[in-house]
Amino acid sequence: MEETTDHKEKKYETATFAGGCFWCMVKPFHKYEGVLEVVSGYTGGHVPNPTYEQVCSETTGHYEAVQVLFDPAVISYPQVLEIFWQSIDPTDAGGQFGDRGSSYKTAIFYHSEQQKEQAQASKEKIQKEGPFETPIVTPILPAVTFYPAEDYHQDYYKKNPGHYGRYFVGSGRAGFLERNWGQS
């Protein structure tokens, strides 16, 4: 997806986030009006068109990530950033919850200087205002090629709600979000 896309004279924007397992990063964005599409995929690495197995091998440099297409006339990039922050543990440099390794680390991939500035401001706000006392380690990086994941990973929470629900709770993500953001 490009940073800004014209659809019948409307301008849509793209946001790209790594937040650990991409299965758990789709549903939070789908809840909001103005979010048009959320695609699971891979970004940040050096292997073109990686497979899930390659990314899991920790040899590609890729993060599991989501790319969010949104209408900034309905939901702003700062609002999209809030959804991201409230879906992760931004203090964990080794992965997310039960998933460890570089492909499960968090990151914000900006598509413009404005997104970079807004991401930096949101990171500083989270660090200053909490709820975390330890440093926020989520990097803010320039967007690079995004490769959509295999079809079976797309909208996983809809296709496999039972497994998704058990994973969301069993990984520790649900409890962490409840304790820190008051959401389940």
TrEMBL record:
Lineage of source species: Bacteria, Pseudomonadati, Bacteroidota, Cytophagia, Cytophagales
List, alphabetically, the InterPro entries matched.
Answer: Met_Sox_Rdtase_MsrA_dom, Met_Sox_Rdtase_MsrA_sf
Per the UniProt record, one Pfam family is PMSR
EC number(s) from the headed UniProt entry: 1.8.4.11
Q: What is this protein identified as?
A: Peptide methionine sulfoxide reductase MsrA
Summarizing the function annotation, the protein's role is: Has an important function as a repair enzyme for proteins that have been inactivated by oxidation. Catalyzes the reversible oxidation-reduction of methionine sulfoxide in proteins to methionine.
The record lists the catalysed reaction(s) as: [thioredoxin]-disulfide + L-methionine + H2O = L-methionine (S)-S-oxide + [thioredoxin]-dithiol; L-methionyl-[protein] + [thioredoxin]-disulfide + H2O = L-methionyl-(S)-S-oxide-[protein] + [thioredoxin]-dithiol
Q: Which UniProt keywords apply?
A: Oxidoreductase
Any stretches that span the bilayer, and where are they? none
Q: Which GO terms describe its molecular function?
A: L-methionine:thioredoxin-disulfide S-oxidoreductase activity; peptide-methionine (S)-S-oxide reductase activity
Q: Which family does it belong to?
A: Belongs to the MsrA Met sulfoxide reductase family.
Domain named Peptide methionine sulphoxide reductase MsrA: which ranges? 14-164
PANTHER family given for it? PEPTIDE METHIONINE SULFOXIDE REDUCTASE (PTHR43774), PEPTIDE METHIONINE SULFOXIDE REDUCTASE MSRA 2 (PTHR43774:SF1)
SUPFAM superfamilies in the cross-refs? Peptide methionine sulfoxide reductase
In this protein, the active site sits at 21
Q: What class of enzyme is it?
A: oxidoreductase
